[in-house]
Write a structure and sequence with these properties.
The protein folds into four domains: 85 residues, Rossmann fold; 62 residues, ATP-grasp fold, A domain (Dna Ligase, domain 1), CATH 3.30.1490.20; 106 residues, D-amino Acid Aminotransferase, Chain A, domain 1 (2-Layer Sandwich), CATH 3.30.470.20; 87 residues, Regulator of K+ conductance, C-terminal domain (Alpha-Beta Plaits, 2-Layer Sandwich). β3 and β4 form a beta hairpin. Strands 14-13-12-15-16 form a five-stranded antiparallel sheet, with helices on both faces. By secondary structure, it is α+β, with helices and mostly antiparallel strands. The longest helix is centred in the middle third of the chain and has 14 residues.
């Protein structure tokens, strides 16, 4: 059996995290190449295309993206090309983009029931007072939607200070969020490393002096922690909902339990390995050695390749006439029922005799025009989403 060929997308071959991944991959018998995503070219054709580096196409089995915020756009292009070539990528392009946008991530996670701080999007300084009121008043956090390692995150203690901060950030064309201040977690948080849907390491980060941000590079210290089960559960759910296979999940210690702060798709390994004593890089390489042989796929992309076919979701709260009826009475015969979303549960391939309940969502696959015609024929309004 030939050795697994691994590409680490990184602009910093000298960085601790990159070196640790290389060492563990070497120890596992992999052939490793570090590639700067800014030094690649993409070839697009009808045979899935290629990624070119130093004049030669990259022929690899797996990719670990270690892409900094400043090169997100360029790096994601390369990641997406590898995906289209059928190469296993530890974090997909879409997952990276979801996690990098704090507003998008909060929208997804709050809808899934993951506890997040109260957050308001502000597009005008005139809306600052209302936004602050919605998140619990001052002090509060003002932050940009994009940023890492504590950059673009500010603790403000007055409405005047908040307005000045928001005005400056909007003038810089930043997307601005006002967020609830979790007083009891001031200057500390918990970093959890999730790999392949499992917690492999955790630590508490504590800020230095009066600094409220606990980031390691800002001089904060790290502590070993025995991670409570409820914190592990939230960390795993957050990573899974965003599609992150290798991630650093940051949690605040709220009065009522864990509160999700953010998910980092390229977590640093130095602090967590030293604090926990866990070989995190080894866990990442072990997961890749197993998972690159079993590819994940974008189901929606596959089903849309058949012209006129696709998936739709019928939300029953907007179709009350369907509530209390069986699936067989509601769904057209040419459609396949993929699942019924009921609360936090999925009922996969349900029996046609299943009675539909309020709040149910029916996920269907089949000819789109036929499905929409059948459903919409029951009402003058449309509530079917692709």
């Amino acid at each position: 059996m030939r050795a697994t060929r691994l590409c680490i997308l990184s602009r910093g071959p000298q960085l601790y995290s990159t070196r640790r991944l290389v060492n563990e991959a070497d120890a596992a018998g992999m052939i490793v190449e570090i590639v700067d995503p800014l030094e690649t070219s993409l070839v697009l054709d009808d045979r899935n295309g290629q990624v070119i580096h130093e004049g030669w196409p990259l022929d690899v089995d797996a990719v670990i993206p270690r892409i900094g915020y400043s090169v997100t756009t360029e790096g994601v292009r390369v990641v997406r090309q590898f995906e289209r070539m059928g190469v296993y990528v530890a974090n997909s392009a879409d997952a990276i983009l979801r996690s990098r946008d704090k507003l998008t991530a909060s929208q997804i996670l709050s809808q899934k029931g993951v506890p997040v701080p109260k957050t308001a999007l502000v597009t005008s300084w005139k809306d600052v007072e209302r936004a602050i009121s919605r998140v619990g008043g001052v002090p509060c956090i003002v932050k940009t939607s994009q940023g890492t390692q504590g950059d673009g995150v500010f603790l403000v203690r007055s409405i005047r200070q908040a307005k000045e901060m928001v005005y400056r950030l909007i003038a810089e064309r930043k997307t601005v969020l006002v967020q609830e201040y979790i007083k009891e977690s001031h200057g500390k948080d918990i970093r959890v490393i999730v790999v392949g849907g499992q917690v492999v390491a955790a630590m508490r980060r504590v800020s230095n002096g009066r600094e409220f941000r606990s980031n390691y590079h800002l001089g904060g210290r790290v502590e070993q922690i025995d991670l409570p089960e409820e914190y592990a559960k939230v960390a795993i759910e957050a990573a899974n909902h965003l599609g992150i296979e290798v991630g650093g999940v940051d949690l605040l210690e709220g009065r009522m339990g864990p509160i999700l702060l953010e998910v980092n798709s390229s977590p640093g390994l130095e602090g967590i390995e030293k604090a926990s004593g866990v070989n995190v890089a080894g866990h990442i390489i072990e997961m890749i050695s197993k998972r690159h042989k079993i590819q994940s796929v974008n189901l929606d992309e596959i089903v849309r390749k058949r012209s006129g076919f696709g998936t739709v979701t019928v939300v029953l709260n907007t179709w009350p006439q369907f509530i209390g009826r069986s699936i067989e009475d509601v769904v057209p015969p040419e459609a396949n029922v993929v699942t019924i979303i009921r609360g936090k549960e999925n009922i996969w391939s349900p029996e046609l005799e299943l009675i539909l309940q309020p709040n149910d969502q029916i996920v269907l696959y089949g000819p789109l025009d036929s499905i929409r015609s059948h459903i919409e024929g029951n009402d003058d309004t449309s509530a079917v989403s692709s």
